[in-house]
Structures are given as structure tokens and as C-alpha cells.
Amino acid sequence: MRQPAAIDFEIIFKHAPIGMCVSEKRVIQACNQALIRMFGYGPTDLIGKSFSVLYPSTDEYERTGARIVPIMNACGHYSDERIMKRANGEMFWCHVTGSALIKDDAHAAGIWTFEDLSARRPVTAELTAREREIAALLVEGKTSKLIARQIGLSPRTVEMHRAKLMRKFAAATSSELVNRLLGVTKQAADLPRTEATISR
After folding, report:
1. pLDDT tens for residues 128-137?
2. What is the pLDDT of residues 114-160, one digit of tens each?
3. CA angle at 8 for the pair 2 and 10, rounded to the nearest 5°
4. Which keywords label this protein (predicted)?
């Protein structure tokens, strides 16, 4: 009987169709080709670099890191959709998922995946760091009160940022704003939910 071929996990990691990296203390220790292409860096440019180079600002890097800790420590993994930055400065929506390798120490060591969402969800307005953060939480379906509690602002301040986002995206309602952030066209948003889902 023929023996199954040995699985080369290094090759799988290197050629996986989704961006992947291994981190320690939020410093990239290894990354694959898809991640390098996605962010527009050279083959070894990201090795030994902080995750901060992938964020639009230092504030967003620090606030996201703080938000990850309690969630990761509670369940061992974390996932969100956020705006990130390529080497050339271009902003893009990215789905990020991570798993902690050491229990109760979220940033000690982890495995992270990155999926580029820009093909179906372009960044069409220039946003501040706070607006990007609040936009990401709105996409998750969170209310202003929940967002305020999560990021340490007053609900009134969150509403102010939401109003600015609505103006920048020419959205008349909060649901229209979320659709614009998700890259859903007006025609698709007007379809029944099942039909709109199938069409995407």
C-alpha cells in the first residue's frame, strides 16, 4: 500500500493564498508571499518589523492592540475588519484573524491571517484615525453606545464622528452609511437580503 506523501508545512505556509504571519510581542517573525504582495513590501522587509508598519497610524496600532487583549485572553482568537496601510501609503479594508499560541498572553506569540477586501470594498474617502476605528466597529453592527464603551469615548462623541462619516460618504441614514462602508451598491441594498447576498 502506497504511503501518503509527507506534508511540507513550510511550503504550505509560504504559498498559502491568504496572507499569513507568525508574531512575537507584535513583531513579525515570519510571513508568506501573499502577505508580502498584499502590503507591497520586499521579500524580507517585514521580518523583524512591528505590526505598526501595517497600520495607518500609531494610535490605531496601540488602540487595536489594547482591544485585542481581553478578547484573545478569553477565547484564544480574535477577528475583525479594519482599514490597513500598504507600503506605498494606500489604505485598504482588510479582514484580520489571529490565534494566540500562549494562553492568557495575547501578544506573546500568535498566528495571523490577512485577507485583502479592497476588490469589493474600496476606501473611497479620506478618514481620520478615529473615523477609521469607528467605521470598522459600525461595520460589525455595533451601536454608538457599544462603540463608546469599547473605545472609551462618550456616545455623543461617537455620534459626532458617525455624522462626519455620513457626510463624507454622502449617506442619508446610518444603514446607508454601513452599506457604503461595506461596498454594497444602492441596487444591491434594495434587494431582498437573500438575493443581495447571492449577488455578491
Report:
1. 999 999 999 9
2. 999 999 899 989 999 999 999 999 999 999 999 999 889 999 999 99
3. 175
4. DNA-binding, Transcription, Transcription regulation
Integer Cα distance of 85 and 54 in angstroms: 5
Per-residue pLDDT reduced to its tens digit, 91-108: 999 999 999 999 999 999
Amino acid making up residue 178: V
How far, in Å, CA of 128 to CA of 147, rounded?
Answer: 16
pTM above 0.90, yes or no: no
For domain 124-200, the CATH architecture is: Orthogonal Bundle (1.10)
Q: Answer for the pair 18, 8: CB distance below 8 angstroms, yes or no.
A: no
The topology (CATH level 3) of 1-123 is: Beta-Lactamase (3.30.450)
Query: Hey, where are the domains in the chain?
Result: 1-123, 124-200
83 within 8 A of 91, measured Cβ to Cβ:
yes
